[in-house]
Amino acid sequence: MASHRPVLVNEALEGLGLSRDGWYVDGTYGRGGHTSGILAALGEHGRLLALDKDPEAVEHARANFGGDPRFSVRFGGFENFRTLVAPWLCEHQLAGALFALGISSAQLDDAKRGFSFSNDGPLDMRMNPGNGISARQWLRQVDEAELAHVLRRFGEEPQARRIARAIIETRASAPIDTTGQLAALVARAAGSGHRRIHPATRVFQAIRIHINRELKSLETVLEQCLRMLADGGRLCVISFHSLEDRIVKRFMARQAKGDPVYAGLPDIPPGAGPTMRLIGGLIRPRQSEVEANPRARSARLRVAERSGAVA
Description:
This protein is of the alpha/beta class. It folds into two domains: 9-106 and 214-306, Vaccinia Virus protein VP39 (Rossmann fold, 3-Layer(aba) Sandwich); 112-212, Putative methyltransferase TM0872, insert domain (DNA polymerase, domain 1, Orthogonal Bundle).
């Protein structure tokens, strides 16, 4: 089992522009790789709030950082960002927030969580196992058209219809209960072809994103975080696939341009002008990091700074 290795740690910490006395949020604690780096840079009066919707991650945070008076942790997802962060901040300013999207190595390597086609286990895929329906339950009830749509929309799977049909036909005679069953089924349906990745990669990604409403939650947290950042506060987002990165890129670009209706006008209503400033361009891991941690290969970091009033 691979140990958890956070990606782009130094780049993310630099992107946050850490102040020793600043108040920061690690919106995706995982196993605390970024949290550890942030705390190391904070002084006595700095504070860090970690969030995670995975109960196991929250337990890990309390066990490993609970004794640090500068550290707090809350259980909850992106959709609850404001309600989790506002009471903690109270009258203080949010100096920065970091989000490392997707699943952690700890989740991926734990067969019982059902995220990986490499480790056979129950077909679950929920970030929070106590909430919502599992992938197994969803596959029992979804129709072929919706399944194909999910595989195409969230996995960018070119053989979405063919794979969806195979899943529906298979479940008619036997339930699909494990990750191994699903991976083998997808491999048979997709054929060998000339893929650079395992045939089940996009299918597992698509189902996971759908089950956890990941893209909708990402859009929500970006909006909520922007409204809570102090002027000059930094937003850092690490994504791992094009669907996530596209949302982050478009959000930051839109906020950096402001409302196009008022472009070039001398008098711009509050909140209609640019609300963010882009900090640098797309940041990818160095080759040395990819060699040490192959899972970092697809990571992408974008950074923006709050620079104006929000409507």
